Structures are given as C-alpha cells and as structure tokens.
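User: Before I run my own analysis I want an independent prediction to cross-check against. Here's the chain; please return only the structure tokens and, at the end, one sentence I can use as a sanity check.
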Amino acid sequence: MLNHSFPAPPASSAARGLGRDEAERLWNASLATVMQQARAVRGSRTGSTITYSRKVFAPLTNLCRDRCAYCTFARPAGDPAARTMTPDEVLAVARAGQRAGCKEILFSLGDKPELRYPPHREWLLRQGFHSTIEYLAAMCQLVFEETGLLPHSNAGVLSRAEIDLLKPVNASLGLMLESTSDRLLARGEAHFECPDKVPAVRLRTLREAGEARVPFTTGILIGIGETLAERLDALFAIRDLHQEYGHVQEVIVQNFRAKADTLFANRAEPLLEDVQRTAAIARLIFGGEISVQVPPNLSPEAHANLLDAGIDDWGGVSPVTLDFINPERAWPALGELREVTAGAGFELRERLAVYPRFAADWTVPPLRDRAAGWLDADGLVRRDREIW
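Assistant: Structure tokens:
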C-alpha cells in the first residue's frame, strides 16, 4: 500500500478555467496580459515547482497505416528504415534506462500496422499475437517485471478492449488529439489518408480511457493548418471530456517542426509568440487541474520564454535515447534544463509517468507499489533518487 496521502482525482463537476468567449477574447489581448494571467494560475497550482519525467524511449514499431504529411517516424513496409523491436531489443533499451536512473519507459508505435501490412501481421502471429497492441502489452509486462520501469504507451487509437488490455501493465496512456478539424482530412492537408486521425475516432479513445479510469496524456499539434478557432475547439474538447471523467493528467502544446523528408518540409513553423500564447491560453482553459507542457527539445532556445507562458512541466526527457518522433531535435541535458529552470525562479523536480493524484487509486497494485517506493510525501520522486 502507498504510504503517501495523494489528492483524489478531480470530481467530474470540478471545471475551473476560461469559458469559450473569454478564450476568444484573450486571443486578441496583449501577449503580456495573457501570460501574466497564466503564470498566476500556475502559481496557485504548483508554486515554484516545474516537473519532468526521466524516461527511456522505446519505438516499438515505426510501421503505421497512416500517412501524416508532417511525420518522419512512420515508415512503410519494405522501407530499409522500417523496423519492429524484438523483446531482446526492448529489454536492452529498458536496462539502459534503468542504469541511467530512468523511472519511465515510453512506448511509441504506429497505428495498427497489421491492418495495412500482411507481413507484419504474419510476424505477429508467429510470435503468438493477433495485434500490435497485444504485442505491446506483453512488452510492457516484460519490461516492468525485468526492470521495474513504469510503462507509458502512446499506442494510437485504442478500443475499450485494447485499453482494458493495456491498463494493468501501464502507469498511464497517451494519445495526442492533435486537432478536431475535419478539414485536415482533405487532400493536401495534414491528415489526408489517415483513418486514425479522424477527430471523432480520437475523441472516442479519450472518452473510453476516461470510462476505464486510465490516467491520460493528450494534447494539440499547432501549425499543421488549423485555424485559431479550431485550436480552441480541440482544447475545449479535451476539457469537456476531463470534466466528465477527470482522467486527463497533462496536456501537451506541441509546435510543428518541419522535416526534410515529409510532405510538409516547406511548411512555415509556428512563431515563438504563437507557441507562448497557445500554451498560456491552454493553462487558462484548464485552470489548476491539468498540467500543461511544451516539449523542450522543440524550442531549445526558448525555455525561459515558455516558462513565462505558464507551463508547469517539461514532459518526458531522456538521458539515454533520442526523441524518435523528432529525431533531429536532441533532448536538452537535464543539468542544463535544471539551470534554465532555476534561472527563471523555479525548482526542477522529477515526477513519474503517472501524476501524484492518480497514483494511489487509478493504477493496479504492482505498478502502484513500485511508484510508492520512489515518491516523497508530495508525490514527486524523492530527492535521493534524482540524478543530475
């Protein structure tokens, strides 16, 4: 049993934050005003603490049935770079993370590649699995049993049955909503020929995760062709579901970065002020309940500016592996991230893949007990277990 007293997950009726009219008004307010308000909300939420998760990244398979215009991670079958990790490879990565003091293993993978690529489906069957999600669940269990790392899976769109399969072997799950714009499914847009990027499909996964009481990470991807109104639509859709189920632990505001080998190679990237405003508005929409993060490797020269916008978390940062979704963007060294955070007046503290308020009641006993051994009375990693 946990020896810590964690706050209970928020009640479904507890929705503090901006209304839609207020949010639209603030889009046109001065950036300084918006960020000042966001910082005030953050101060009441986390005070002078900024968090991150020390993780190792396992790209279980980069096969995917979708063809996002901005993605360099997914590879078609037959591409020399296409690969699916074996159990030995997964364990090797996990053990490297364990040696480096990581507490989380982040599994990332393409959406349902077995539905598009018969050779992958046949490979799974030879291993004794009927789907990539079944294989993922087995790898999560293997890693936890062998290393004690807490799995967090970004596994794409999931059915309720798949969520139920993953829940016992994951501290938390994640799926970027990205956008609620159906326009982006049209030819020439970001999500053309991407059946798993249909907004209603992704929102169903978020809803079913709430029904299953799974701590969940989601977010939006800005700069892929959405309008500002559509950006707000996505943020409020997330908040609506969180109001109903109380399961969203963090929201990522991820800025599009152009990659040379994609259809969007020449697309303009969001300006820093756009990222700051969006993060600040997100902070105000979600009030004090949900953590808001911006990936630090996607804006390496702007960490202090992002802290100015009211974020309270840097997300997962790995001292071991690349960000395989953005491999050209190196993670910041944790010592440097700690220094820039301190320079802005905050203390950088390590958290787990599952946030404190969910750890006691929303995770299964083996994962919960493992988490308890790392945590202090505030639900953060004990200082004697932090490594810089």
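Sanity check: The two ends are 29 Å apart (CA to CA).
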